[in-house]
Amino acid sequence: MNEAIHPPIDPNEGYVTEDGRRIGGVVMEMKHITLRFGGVEAIKDISFDIREGEIRAIIGPNGAGKSSMLNVISGFYNPQEGEVWYKGQIRKPMKPFQVARQGIARTFQNIALFEGMSVLDNVMTGRLNHMKASFLDQGFWWGKAQREEVENREKAEQIIDFLEIQAIRKTPVGRLPYGLKKRVELARALAAEPQILLLDEPMAGMNVEEKEDMSRFILDVNDEFGTTIVLIEHDMGVVMDLSDRVVVMDYGKKIGDGTPDEVRNNQEVIDAYLGVSHD
Amino acid sequence: MFYREAGDFKTSYAEDNQTFPIKFDRFRYYAVLLVALGIIPFFINDYWANALLIPFLIYAIAAIGLNILTGYCGQVSLGTGGFMAVGAYASYKLMTAFPWMDMVSVTLLAGLITAMVGVAFGLPSLRIKGFYLAVATLAAQFFLVWMFNKVPWFYNYSASGQISAPERTMFGLAVTGPNADAWVRYLFCLFFVFVLAWLARNLTRGSIGRQWMAIRDMDIAAEIIGVNPLKAKLTAFAVSSFFVGIAGGLLFTVYLGAVEVGEAFGITKSFLVLFMIIIGGLGSLFGSFAGAAFMVLLPVVLRNFMTGTLGWESTIATHFEFVIVGGLIMFFLIVEPHGLARLWQLTKEKLRLWPFPH
Predict the structure, then answer these.
(1) Does residue B60 contact residue B54 with C-beta atoms inside 8 Å?
(2) Does the keyword Transport apply (chain A) (predicted)?
């Protein structure tokens, strides 16, 4: 699904996981990122990489700077220092919509759907970077505009099928319950056919069953579409089960990076979560 | 029972995406077209044209225009009157400078000129929103009216400061001026309403319309998923002003014939069109028509009732009219903020089941 618009990184790099998924080379690399808000340093000199096709988790206590990190990746914040490398090139400071056009999509911690629009329209809005019909074409609804609308509708319907939200496709989003809204938001992000999908607490406020559903969807997305996923989540069980590698942040600093097992046994990480006085 | 969607199956996405996906709606639309084109032109007289039909058609265009900006893109504008004035004065200058030009071209060009002015005044929307943007567009309203009053070039240095539309013909029939027949002026306006409503429908159902609505509902999320806010907002301003400019041009050339800018295009006009879309329904094309019909029809009905049936003096009737219109606006804002369009939708949902309760 992704190959058409995103060329693969380097076929020789990478490895195969135990469960048979192929992890490719480094697709994105954060180098010495520092982000300040006035005098507050939200992120202090953090570096890590994201490999193609992996599920990369960012964890840490509240206020550790996880969401800020995600906002740096999605171009919402421009860091004062450091470089973002994407597909082997340094990324100039750019607007969020330009980042989106490079194949990076995200969901939000607090649901940020378009409440006045139907589920289908929300998902179709996610596909807008694939729709190129000119203004006049759309106004007169001829040729390209009409063709594009139908083609993209097909893709949108595939995503809707995939996430099992067919029954609500024409319902205004404002009327949906919380769990479904989260799923629609995932659908909207997926509709862009992103190469990297950023999920900011996709399971916040869900019950166990909804969490299981969402975990299954995340794994399926990664498996079927080969989408690289960067995930922020507080439920440690979920994080350890889903992710290939984990970055641990605390007070804006990186205190751990590695496979779930490595992170779990890292003394600094244990201290951060159990609470040791900072001096 | 009366309104059914059962059994109306779609087998392609294009079919599902048409303007009137339900057969009943489609036939009702054809019926309206038939009445508007095949029956009304033969029975129309000057009273019906001037009191109801032509103002309804012209305000429907203005309401669709403002609805695109405010209802679909979420940018509140109080400059509608000013932009209508741009359309009117552009029509006047074009008609007097190029007497050979036909009225369709004049009106379309006037719309394009207004679109450019609208984009210029829409630039602040990139930085400010909500009430603050409303105040910025209010500045446009006052500036434009002031400019058309103060710069004599716009009214060709006429002594009265008014502009009046010279007679122009199409296919040998006078469209503007005192000799124009009611049915010609009616059909001329209807043509624009039909084409512009179709354009608006196409724009709002496609990618650009979804971008507008995304900006309206949550601008930050819209930008994150790839909407260029600059482009989305400015296209909304351009399209909206294009519609409003055409409405202003038609109001001057076809309806009023002679115009004094402060009187015809003052701030009250901005509010009138805003009330139309609030009462009709924000973000709904049907609502634009319903609101325009309501606001044009209501004063006429009230006045006829109070002076005709009750035999009151016309001054008292006029004051009561203000009270009642104001009261209705408050009523709608409190009871049904989504306007007549929403009421119509609820009626349809009820009619699906009628006469059964479930």
Answers:
(1) no
(2) yes
